[in-house]
């Protein structure tokens, strides 16, 4: 705790004039351009890796970067997305998974969830990824299996995202675009889901949007091609 308190003290002392201006400007409102949904993992620091300033990103984090589909039971992330789209008018929503994700590892090894009933229940929202990979890549385990699972989880959560009425309405009139990314911690690299090719490709300056795409064809390509990403 001392490290946090000292860190805050140091931050205030070393704050730049630009930062001071940002905070004054933002004191009475925010207009972030992007909602960024990622894992709660402590190694992911969106504001650091995207070089953003206060007020740029509306960040929401949870275990496994999950967006439950629209249902009667409302989760925090679904409420935050609705607020971001209808009140803040964000133009983009990014769902970002990452390498070495503990949640994805737990999907691979359900025994790890013993004694964690809430996590186990929460990860049911990622069942779509587990099933898709088990049915289509049953022989691929370990690192590569984890990569497939992580990618398919992002694709599955994008599908869930589209079930939220506020998102569907904003996508229909083109005011919101949604994106699926994977952040590789060791390589500091990001790959983005390309719905037209059904695979993840290095992040481009103008990533494809998934408004009209059907991501489910991604396992129709031969394994060698799919692995080349
Ligand atoms: Zn994670």
TrEMBL record:
SMART domains: Pro_CA. SUPFAM superfamilies: beta-carbonic anhydrase, cab. Binds 1 zinc ion per subunit. Pfam families: Pro_CA. The keyword Nucleus does not apply. Its EC number is 4.2.1.1. One of its GO terms (molecular function) is zinc ion binding. InterPro entries: Beta_CA_cladeB (IPR045066), Carbonic_anhydrase (IPR001765), Carbonic_anhydrase_CS (IPR015892), Carbonic_anhydrase_sf (IPR036874). Its cofactor is Zn(2+). Keywords: Lyase, Metal-binding, Zinc. Zn(2+) binds at residues 39, 41, 98, 101. Coiled coil: none annotated. It catalyses: hydrogencarbonate + H(+) = CO2 + H2O. One of its GO terms (biological process) is carbon utilization. Reversible hydration of carbon dioxide. Belongs to the beta-class carbonic anhydrase family. This is Carbonic anhydrase. The lineage of its organism: Bacteria, Pseudomonadati, Pseudomonadota, Gammaproteobacteria, Lysobacterales.
